[in-house]
Amino acid sequence: MNYFKLRKINYKSHREDLLPPLNVDMDDWLHSPYTCLKIRLNIEIANIVVWVLQYTSIKPNFITLLYALSGITGAFLLSSGIKSMILLGVIIFFVYGFLDVVDGFLARLKKRTSQLGHVMDPWAGLVCTYSFLIGLGMYLYNFTQDINFIYLTILVITINALDFKNYTYHYLMYEFYKNYKSSKSKSKSKSKKIKINENLLKVPSILFHLKNFFQGFLDNRARTIDAIGLIILIELTYNKIILSDLIYYLIIIKSAIVFAGGFYLITFKGLIEKINLVLKK
Q1: Would you say the pTM of this structure is higher than 0.90?
Q2: d(Cα 85, Cα 79) in Å, to the nearest integer?
Q3: Which residue, among 248, 124, 267, has the nearest Cα to 259 in the 3D structure?
C-alpha cells in the first residue's frame, strides 16, 4: 500500500476509535490543543514506520513488546544519574507512544489482529507507566541523595500493584470464567461488560466526582508524562530540583486515595455482591 493511502486510513481509524471509548477528540484544538498535536505526531511517525514494516515479516505483537521495552529502557536512563542519559530517557518517554500506534495499525493492515494483541497492548502501557514511576523516583534519589525517594518509589509501585479493587475485578472474572468452563453453559457464552454505576452502589455522588478528579489528576496520559519530562529538562538545565519532587509526592497521595477509595467500595459498599449480581444476569 502506498504511503498516502496508508496515512489516510490511519487518520480515519483514529478518528473513529478514539472518541467513543476514550472520549478523545483529536480535532478539538480549542479544548485539547496539546493532545491533538501529540496524537498527530505519533500518527505521522507511525505512518512512516508501518509503511516500511508492511513489507517485512515483523509481527504486531513484537512491536508491542518493543513498546513495553521502551518504557523499561526510559526508566533505566532516568535512573542513571548521568545528564546525557537522563535527557535520552526523557526523549524516549516523549516519543515512545508512536509504537502504541504502530502495533495496532500494523495488525489491522496485515489482518493479524488477535485477542493476544488486544491483551498485550494495555499490559505494555501498564509496564511503561510503572517504569516511569520507578525512573522518576530513582531520578529524584540520584539528584538529591535522599534515601526516602527509594522508599517512596517502592511505596507507590506497591500501592498500584496491590490495588484491591482491580484484584477483585480480576478474581471475580476468573471465578466466572472457571464456573462457566466447568458448567459449559451456553447461556453465559456472551462476554460480560461490568458497569457499576453510583445508583447501584448507593455511594454519595460527591465521592464519584472525587474519584473522577483523582483518576484524571496526574494520570498516565502523554500530556502528564511530557509535562514532567519538561520539568526534568528545566531541572537539568539549572542543576536543581524545582518541581518534580512535589509532583512525585502528589502522585503517591493520589495513588493512596484511589487505593483507599477502591478498598472502601469493596469492604463497605458491597461491590463484590454487585459485580456478582451483574455477572449472573
Answers
A1: no
A2: 9
A3: 267
3-state secondary structure the chain: CCHHHHHHHHHHHHHHHHHHHHCCCCCCCCCCHHHHHHHHHHHHHHHHHHHHHCCCCCCHHHHHHHHHHHHHHHHHHHCCCCHHHHHHHHHHHHHCHHHHHHHHHHHHHCCCCCHHHHHHHHHHHHHHHHHHHHHHHHHHHHHHCCCHHHHHHHHHHHHHHCCHHHHHHHHHHHHHHHHHHHHCCHHHCCCCCCCCCHHHHCCCHHHHHHHHHHHHCCCCCHHHHHHHHHHHHHHHHHCCCCCHHHHHHHHHHHHHHHHHHHHHHHHHCCHHHHHHHHHHC
Give the separation between CA 266 and CA 164, rounded to whole angstroms: 8
Considering only 126-140, 192-206, 212-226, which range has the smallest mean pLDDT?
192-206
Is the distance from CB of 18 to CB of 24 less than 8 angstroms? yes
What is the percentage of the chain residues whose pLDDT exceeds 70?
A: 83
**Domains of the chain and CATH, by start:** 57-280 (1.20.120)
To 10 degrees, the CA torsion angle through 106, 43, 131, 240? 160
Average pLDDT of span 169-190: 65
Task: Give mean pLDDT, residues 190-217.
Answer: 56
Distance between CA atoms of residues 96 and 73, nearest Å: 11
Output the nine-digit C-alpha cell for 107. 495488525
Cell 449480581 appears where? 277
